[in-house]
Task: structure prediction
Amino acid sequence: MSFLELFKRPCLIGAHRGYNSKHPENTLSALEASIGHCDFIEVDVQLSRDGVAVIMHDETLERTTNVRENEAYKTRVPYKLSDFTYAELSSLDYGSWFYLDKKKFEPLLTLKKVLEFVKENNIYINIEIKDLNDTFSDVKVVASVIKEIEASNTKDLVLLSSFRHQYLPLCKKIEPDIPTAALVEVRHPKPLIEYLKLLEVDAYHFDDALVDEATVKKLRDAGFFVNIYTVNDKKRRQELFDMGVNGVFSDYLE
Ligand code: G3P
Ligand code: MG
Result:
């Protein structure tokens, strides 16, 4: 099996950063809650200062951790994730304030833990590699992520994606068996199909604001799988599926 097998099924729902409307995003709680409510999970991966692959969306720690409450880190503004070691990141809370009783300390989630989780639950995972170009070489980033996937023997469950398209041919070079997807937010690269072929990707992920039926058809006819983010409205999901879109990333999984 591989993520490409999953793409044979229609109307896929991806749990965006886990079930992030019910639990803090990109935490193990959010992943656990998504089981049974989605076809695959999406998480964002970055590297700590000492090279540990950790799960977080933003470049800085303020929004999703309690870093500002920690006296020890008050000189570390703007709290860039890649300035913090794994040990330092492990000391932070990743969203207990999300819950009304605020009692549940939310620990750091690592890529290693995510891969253990997907293996245990036999659930597909889209690992989005954040653009770490200002801190680490492309090879370092891609090799670090793929090394963990190989070590955990989970490549059959994984789809790798990135807004930094330079990572994608590198992924294929290091591990051709793992499917890849190019992510786009603002405008489609031109000429789109030729561009995606050069990247050797299997799928194309783009913002709902960029969707039109002709582009979806062109992509599907050329053999690319299409996933759209972030789609929380059920009617809109169905419109996209009717156009031929394979899957949507969603914050709400009810
Ligand atoms: O991978 C789909 C989606 O997660 C891309 O945007 O900013 O939520 O990581 P973002
Ligand atoms: Mg993402």
